[in-house]
Backbone:
């Protein structure tokens, strides 16, 4: 498995992963537009996991103020889940964050997304807040980078 920074020609494969990770998006979610916007944002980093040249997962990190990194997206193709790829992407991102002097990583996750919450807790993220979004509850999680 190879992890590297994504380039624009990875867009279609990233969209494919996002749409085939089992995550239920809101009805107006447009993965294609979203991925293009990520590439257009100079503060975003997109990292992809490749298996036999195929993109099977991705994670994004946005540099916010005060050296805070926001993990916006993380998804693994369903058939590649539970093989440690999500964990490898998280480790890669944390190493990147540490080398680039980030002080904190933050993310938001639905309170019903148990596998993601378990994964983040395993990576020492803690719940720092809760907010209502329509009829859903979202958890804010954070981890200090040492
Ligand atoms: C969440 C997600 C990224 C995990 O990726 P993954 O590659 O399957 O995860 P890993 O195999 O690296 O597992 C890492 C840890 O995550 C947790 N986990 C993963 N799948 C799980 C499941 N089905 N049930 C419970 N815990 C799970 C476990 O703590 C696991 O560690 P363990 O295997 O030692 O118990 C993946 O399930 C996914 O793409 N989900 C849909 C998209 C999504 O919800 N993204 C997060 C949005 S905030």
Residues:
């Amino acid at each position: 498995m190879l992890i590297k920074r994504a380039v624009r020609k990875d867009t279609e494969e990233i969209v494919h992963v996002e749409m085939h990770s089992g995550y239920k998006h809101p009805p107006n979610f447009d993965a294609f537009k979203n991925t293009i916007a990520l590439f257009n944002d100079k503060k975003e980093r997109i990292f992809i996991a490749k298996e036999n040249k195929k993109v099977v997962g991705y994670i994004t990190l946005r540099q916010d103020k005060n050296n805070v990194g926001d993990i916006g997206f993380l998804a693994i193709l369903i058939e590649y889940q539970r093989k440690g790829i999500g964990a490898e992407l998280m480790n890669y991102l944390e190493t990147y964050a540490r080398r680039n002097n980030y002080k904190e990583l933050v993310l938001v996750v639905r309170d019903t997304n148990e596998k993601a919450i378990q994964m983040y807790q395993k990576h020492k993220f803690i719940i720092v807040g809760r907010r209502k979004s329509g009829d859903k509850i979202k958890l804010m999680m954070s981890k200090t980078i040492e």
Remarks:
- The first strand starts at residue 2 and ends at 5.
- The CA atoms of residues 13 and 112 lie 27 Å apart.
- Residues 21-23, 74-76, 81-87, 109, 113, 115-116, 118-119, 122 surround coenzyme A (CB under 6 Å).
- The chain has a mean pLDDT of 97.
